[in-house]
Design goal:
Blueprint (H helix, E strand, L loop, with lengths): L1 E7 L2 H11 L8 E5 L6 H11 L14 E4 L5 E5 L6 H6 L2 H6 L3 E5 L13 E9 L2 E8 L1
Parallel strand pairs: 2-5, 2-6, 4-5
Antiparallel strand pairs: 1-7, 3-4, 6-7
Helix pairs in contact: 1-2
This protein binds adenosine-5'-triphosphate (ATP) and magnesium ion.
Length: 140
């Protein structure tokens, strides 16, 4: 287990961090993102998807629950904000997404504790001030 702490000062730096970490997250089954509204989870995922060679720009799946971005390795980008609980996630085929070999990136992971397989990496976002974020990355 390894934890690292980063500070970003604007949305571009958060995107760049996601892009830079792509190589280290290449093999993880899932990436659980934690942190409240407007913390930069979608921005981080946008950079990560670029780092995975995805050509579709990542955008918030708040209403669609999941967006898929084909790339060198596919990313399935989930937003659990509107999902009631883990049962609803299994209903839309969570296990199939995991088994597909795509990297499953989930915003609002707080809402679905217990669904993440062994080896899941975690990123926790918190607000220092309007433009500054602390971003803690935990690789297993
Ligand atoms: N250091 C920073 N990193 C990322 N975003 C920042 C930063 N500073 C300010 N922002 C602003 O915060 C917002 C982050 O939006 P983003 O959609 O990425 O958040 P989110 O965590 O996905 O929110 P939600 O919970 O609503 O999905 C943007 O409006 C962005 O401009
Ligand atoms: Mg978001």
């Amino acid at each position: 287990m390894e934890e690292r702490v980063y500070i970003t000062h604007n949305v571009q730096e958060t995107e760049a961090l996601g892009e830079r970490l792509a190589s280290e997250l290449w093999d993880v089954p899932a990436l659980a993102l934690y942190g409240g509204l407007g913390m930069g989870k979608t921005a981080f995922t946008r950079g990560l998807a670029r780092g995975f060679g995805c050509t579709i720009q990542a955008s918030s799946p708040t209403y669609t629950i999941v967006n898929e971005y084909p790339g060198k390795r596919k990313i399935c980008h989930f937003d659990m904000y509107r999902l009631g609980d883990a049962d609803a996630l299994y209903d839309i085929g969570w296990e199939d997404y995991l088994e597909s070999g795509a990297l499953c990136v989930t915003e609002w992971s707080e809402n679905v504790p217990g669904v993440f397989p062994e080896g899941t990496a975690e990123v926790r976002f918190s607000r220092i001030d309007d433009e500054t974020r602390e971003i803690k990355v935990r690789l297993c």
